[in-house]
Amino acid sequence: MIEVLRLSHRPFRDKRITTHCALVARAFNADSIVYSGQKDSKLESTIAKTAANFGGKFSISYQKDPIAYIKSRKAANYLIIHLTVYGMPIQDKISSIRNKDCLIVIGSEKVPPEVYELADFNISITSQPHSEVAALAIFLHEYYQGKQLKKQFTMARSEIIPQEKGKLVNSKLYK
Amino acid sequence: MIEVLRLSHRPFRDKRITTHCALVARAFNADSIVYSGQKDSKLESTIAKTAANFGGKFSISYQKDPIAYIKSRKAANYLIIHLTVYGMPIQDKISSIRNKDCLIVIGSEKVPPEVYELADFNISITSQPHSEVAALAIFLHEYYQGKQLKKQFTMARSEIIPQEKGKLVNSKLYK
Q1: Contact A134 B133 (CB under 8 A)
Q2: CATH of residue B137
Q3: Which end of chain A is more exposed for a tag (fewer CB within 10 A), N or C?
Q4: Closest of B156, B15, B44 to residue A127, by C-alpha
Q5: Residues of B in contact with A86 (CB under 8 A)
């Protein structure tokens, strides 16, 4: 199982970034995303609608206490992976992480020091500032060695069919 | 040369997404980003400050007419790569793209049909909806076959030193 934990969501400031993180988690074969901070029912419905339309199993849920949640996942033998620009390079660590259950923690501007301590791996995707959306995508891409690019989503109502030019969407494949 | 063109920027709605796209472009070894839509001097100064602080050569600039800009780059023998969920899978096309000068076009919600026509390659990173930030990151990661993760940035004032736990930043490495 691969779960993503997005810390300290703020509906006004972070709406699109958290939405992008959740969509990346789903598209790149994570099983679920959990978020803390402010509860945001609009975020939850956007993600649930996308999952219902494009298929597969993916869920989003809210956790008030992210530290307790990290501890509970650690107790359940998940590896705690904290993605941070200050961490160790992914290319040096990913082979120790693959094929294990993971909780991937992605932060906001201020991550509590306890998260660094609880993490089994603090992992950086380059040591340059960029984006938690990109960091999550690259982490999952490396975790799955690119195989997630070919994932088939079951029970989809809409399916995009790749085209050299233009757009083709098959709809109502499944009722 | 690798340039990124971000279409139809709206400072209010897209501020953080465009900032993330620009930071990913820089961190993942693109040379520059150009954006169209509304001019946004705050965006430009954020990116310029990051580049000055963390080193390397990277620039951001504004173009009023993105279609004319795409045509000019096409005339200069750049491959025009349009990242879109409707395009052909990256894994089937990337070997025809590597080692060539590219203009990578990333859209907003409505991309004019002309962009699909002008593109030498319409490329998808999965056929699932997710994020232009993630799509750009995965494209560059595949273009460089992961080597951009080890890029050294010259003339940096601040350098983050990877740590198993905690944070370490070396400052004023260069005056």
Answers
A1: yes
A2: 3.40.1280.10
A3: C
A4: B156
A5: 160, 162-163, 166-168
